[in-house]
Amino acid sequence: MPFPAVNVNATKATYVLKYRVFGRQRFVTIGPHGAPWTPELARKEAKRLLGLVANGKDPVDEKAKARLQAADPLRQSRINISGTPNKG
User: Fold this and answer.
1) pLDDT tens-digit profile of 5-40?
2) Mean pLDDT value of segment 42-63
3) 47: which strand partners?
4) Cis ω before 2 (30° cut-off from 0)
5) pLDDT score of 70
6) CA contacts within 13 A on the Cβ side of 10
């Protein structure tokens, strides 16, 4: 069973899951060590993410899609009545 890797940088350890999907090696950051990420919670999150991978989904792609959907209303609000984007 894979465990989340711990990336130790100058400031704080970070939990990272390394996995392979569609023939590509991917990394997803779970979070920095400390509140709320304890080793037990990071393992549970890693298992949840690996479940998504086992079902044919890529957590990195899912996160990117969610980010784009969250940004869509902001883009729509920048389009004025004439249908052209506002500058700025």
Assistant:
1) 666 555 678 999 999 988 889 999 999 998 899 999
2) 92
3) none
4) no
5) 81
6) 0
Residue 4 burial by CB count (10 A; 0-12/13-18/19+): exposed, middle or buried?
buried
Q: Which residue has the tokens 């949840």?
A: 48
Tokens of 27: 């990394």
Structure tokens at 1: 């069973």
Q: Tell me which residue has tokens 């894979």.
A: 2
Structure tokens at 86: 């506002």
- Supply 17's token pair: 């899951």
Q: What is the DSSP letter of 7?
A: E
The pLDDT of residue 77: 62
Closest CA to 32 of 53, 55, 72, 4: 4
Token couple for 35? 């509140």
The residue type of 78 is R
How crowded is residue 23: how many other Cβ atoms within 10 Å of its Cβ? 5
